[in-house]
Amino acid sequence: NTYLFVYDLMQFCGHSWIFTNMIIRFMSFGKDSLADTFYSIGLVMRLCQLLSVLEILHILIGIDKSRFFPRFLQITERIIVLFVVINSQEEVQGKYIVCVLFFLWNLLDVVRYTYNMLARTGIYYLPLTWLNFSLCILLYPLSVLAKAFAIYVSLPYFETFGTYSIKLPLPFAFSIYFPYVLKMYLLVLFIGKYLIF
Fold it and tell me: Any stretches that span the bilayer, and where are they (predicted)?
């Protein structure tokens, strides 16, 4: 329980830093701050998301009693969108949708990790419990739409630059056109939204 508390505390600190940084930058620079969100907080965001992979391990070894499949889907979706789509295309990193997506993810995570920390110490603060579950119901579908829009915005860049597309010469004559993979992933993303709840 102490380990999970420390894990939740680390995630809370990371996501709080990101969330606070985003708000302060927006209040200081207005709309101009939206375009360089990824450049100012991207490293910490990537670290927090990589660290979240441990949550799958926590469930598998039995120290966390959360349901595996919804958690696995949520973490996998974020890793794919953050690392495969946003991180790999510099042109996408400056889009407003990245700021919206990071705002939604971090708002959800600040509340979730606060709730988890308190729950691990046996404290159940009713307004926080309500906020945790209400925000999830409200913001998770919005975050799925934001992820889908980020993928949609990235498609022209994947088409132009051929990132992750593979074309093998004969005798294999095998090719993978990555924009098609992303379009199929959009379907999986929306199906996954219903499986998480």
Answer: 37-61, 123-152, 172-196
Q: 47-63 burial by CB neighbour count: b if 16+ within 10 A, else e?
A: ebbeebeebbebbeeee
DSSP letter at 63? S
Q: In terms of C-beta density within 10 A (0-12 exposed, 13-18 middle, 19 or more buried), how is residue 1 classed?
A: exposed
Q: CA 65: distance to chain centroid?
A: 21
- The string of pLDDT tens digits covering residues 81-104 is 999 999 999 999 999 999 999 999
From residue 81, alpha-carbon distances to 54, 129, 179, 186 in Å are: 18, 28, 13, 11
173 is written with which tokens? 């004559």
Distances (CA, A) of 44 to 47, 87, 110, 187: 5, 13, 14, 29
Nearest Cα to 144, choosing from 83, 91, 197, 68?
197
| Residue whose pair of structure tokens reads 């999970």 in the numeric block | 4
Mean pLDDT of all residues belonging to the chain: 93
| Domain spans of the chain, in order of start | 2-196
Beta bridge partners of residue 167, listed in sequence order: 175
Query: Which pLDDT tens digit goes with each residue over 137-187?
Result: 989 999 999 999 999 999 999 999 999 998 877 777 788 899 999 999 998
- Give residues with Cβ within 8 angstroms of 52, minimum separation 6: 11, 75, 78
